[in-house]
Amino acid sequence: MNPIDALFQRLRSQRRKALIPFLTAGDPDLDATARLARTLAEQGADLLEIGFPYSDPIADGPVIQASYTRALERGVYVEDIFAAVRKFALPHTPLVAMVSYSLIHRRGGEAFLQQAAAAGFSGAIVPDLPWEESETLSRLAAQRDFKLIHLVAPTTPRERARAIAQRSTGFLYCISVTGITGERDRLPSELREQLAWLRSQTDLPLCVGFGISRPEHVHMLRELADGIIVGSAFVRHLEKAGSQPLDTVGAALGELAQTLAAALNPSA
Amino acid sequence: MSSAFANLPDVHGRFGPYGGRYVPETLMPALAQLTAEYDKARHDADFQRELERYLKTYVGRPSLLYFAERLTKEAGGARIYLKREDMNHTGAHKINNCIGQALLAKRMGKPRIIAETGAGQHGVASATAAALFGLSCQVYMGAEDVRRQKLNVFKMKALGATVRPVTSGSQTLRDAINETLRDWMANVTTTHYIIGSVVGPHPFPWMVRDFQAVIGRETRQQCLEQVGRLPDVVVASVGGGSNAAGMFYPFLGDTAVELVGVEAAGRGEKLGDHAATLSYGKPGVLHGSLSYVLQDADGQTAPVHSVSAGLDYPGVGPEHSYWKDCGRVRYTSVRDEEALQAFFMCSRLEGILPALETAHAVSEGMRLAAKRKREDVVVICFSGRGDKDCYEVARLQGEEI
Asked: What is the ipTM metric for this complex?
């Protein structure tokens, strides 16, 4: 069974929710990414999203964008990311690649999936590959039981959301806000309604991302979703890796993971 | 048009394998709405009449097809004609598209428009259309370009637009597009994005080409009237490729007419030294569509260079990629110094200052004319006026204005 399916099956039986932090591969460097990934896995992360730095990330806000720019300036290549991830050795924490279709297209879908799976990724999120363009890659992914996680936005009409949910595997990525990634003070109230409706339409785990950074966001989402994805709030700490020891950065990430995990699964 | 090319893009926004929509899900409903609205508008006689009225009474169309006698003499071959898009209001072809899209924004009930700009021409044209139709307007511009193009920044502000300097990534046109797309994602229900070229996700390449096709339609008609037949060669510069797409499209079915697109060869063939996407690039995904693109081996967008800010772009419209692969259009490139020579030659021989983008087409047009018979006709798409480039050209000449 794909580790992502196994994870959500286990969490559901325990009535627990998944904490999914995001880390940029190669910021500040790939060794640091490996160490920080381990810290997060130890401090409550159930699944990790690993961002592949891309030169033109149109869905990302300033924090992740700046992180990508820092990693690219240091010369992080896709090949190096695969090599580094192969050595992560996190047996209980499935990995999902967050990767622009520009990078996948350049390698070819088949080759990318093969290399990603070999490196230890269990799935991928391709934020600029909407439903209309994803049929081929979805088929290739299904052949190797590699999860291709699709996204639903607040602007997505219901009929379309249904079609997206049908094609998505692993989980469904529910974008909480109309806009780009990055921390927000509050989440829109319509989100509650959309999640409830999606729940009536699909058995896939629903994971919510964009804008989540605080325990009070988590409280709102706990009852409605199967997991939360937190990016910018973690990546923000990577900025400091230039001026602080990595252990300090790791401690800050671990603390945030613990806080969010505790808010997500208070009884655990 | 009796050509298989005429029915493209298909319903998926594809020109052969190129085009499509590689954008975040948040934008997909807006693109679907825009496609549906544009499809209605293009069959709506009232919309077309309104568009024509503004093009005639406000933009000043039709633009002239001018026989450039002294350039012809200098080249010593075919007769050279200039399609004078520089005579349009705001001084370039950009306004054709902006009027069309601003009318669409109004039709969709969207009170706010946003646009990206490199040197500022499309920003000025967008701000102009926004002023004309009472829309609010925000223009994104690379921080470096804001500094270099003070005059256009002032013009945009005077026209009521706000100009947002973009400090992310490479701080150039490419990042201005990224930032405009981000704004659009956050404000998609109230805002229309007027993209400035035949690039981006479907329906933009299609729609922008159609709004610019007035250039080719007029040229075809004027050439028949003035010369009595169609031209032998039509030349246009290609950055994103909107003036070229608009010029070439009505000629696609005229298979005897040779179509030549001119890219920026910059200062050399090395990646980073030029912006000749079709000449040196490979198919890839950038800014929402599949097309030729200048990338590294990983798919990261490469840096580009051209003396002309309007050609300084690492991608190209998907329809150009299709025309290149089919062989219907030939793409070539002109170096910075050749463009600068053409800038001065055209100014001194004809009394017309070309934009540096246009100077690339003039250079190639002269070269092609020189190789042809005296009876032959070469039309150059004279996409814009050179006033905006005077500071840059002076700087390169070591002069201070």
From this structure: 0.96
